[in-house]
Amino acid sequence: MSEQILIEREEGLLTLRLNRPDKMNALTRTMYAGLADALEAAQEDRSVRVVLITGNAECFTSGNDIVDFLQEPPSGPDSAVFRFMRALMEFTKPVVAAVAGPAVGIGTTLLLHCDQVFIAKGAKLKMPFVNLGLCPEFGSSFLVPRLVGPVKASSLLLRGEGFTGVQAVAYGIANEALEDGAAALERAREVCQAFQQLPPAAVALSKRLLKAPFIEELRRVVAEEGQHFVQRLHSPEAHEALSAFTQRRQPDFSKFL
């Protein structure tokens, strides 16, 4: 397992800690593969009762590592990022997240697939897919409008409007906003301990029933978004946006009018 994903075991709790602080926990193919491997193994490990996903006190994740993505973009459902998406979306045990600082792109959309989210009040969330010439991913085009309504969803997904941990609670993306990252992690661990005391089969069944009314539609949307996302990565607009990002300049989309 890469040292950029730290795995911590404590009784029935499995903690997956993003550990690339020099790059604001930006996610690489190797990190996605490590997360997917860990979740797939935890699904089959009866000793794991609950999973906690977190970063550090300053940052959850700044999203995809753009350079890594440009070097070898995902090409299909077996790519590491899509393996991670499937593993998290289909995970039958409780998943809890503790979030502080930036949570960008998939750093926000993965929270939509967690069962409980505890977040620092000042956390900074954003889904800037369109800004990068891409499109929504990980079911966000389906789940975000269900949570906040279509009008607000257009601000979050079409304009990439940022929001805070306090707003994330108001939008139904997080359960509680805490004073800082340490408090968010402490509260998340408390909830994980509560899950460990519950009957596991009853928890798994209840989680399945909660998702049953929409899971097939969600799977379809995630697959469709993934296809478009891969295509958009090769588009001239995305090339301009991602190049501008790496070159620290404003993108120029006027040539595409």
TrEMBL record:
The keyword Lyase applies. InterPro entries: ClpP/crotonase-like_dom_sf, ECH/Chromodomain_protein, Enoyl-CoA_hydra/iso. Keywords: Isomerase, Lyase, Peroxisome. It is found in: Peroxisome. Its main location: other. The keyword Lyase applies. GO terms for molecular function: delta(3)-delta(2)-enoyl-CoA isomerase activity; enoyl-CoA hydratase activity. SUPFAM superfamilies: ClpP/crotonase (SSF52096). Its EC number is 4.2.1.17. This is Enoyl-CoA hydratase. It comes from Pseudomonas nicosulfuronedens.
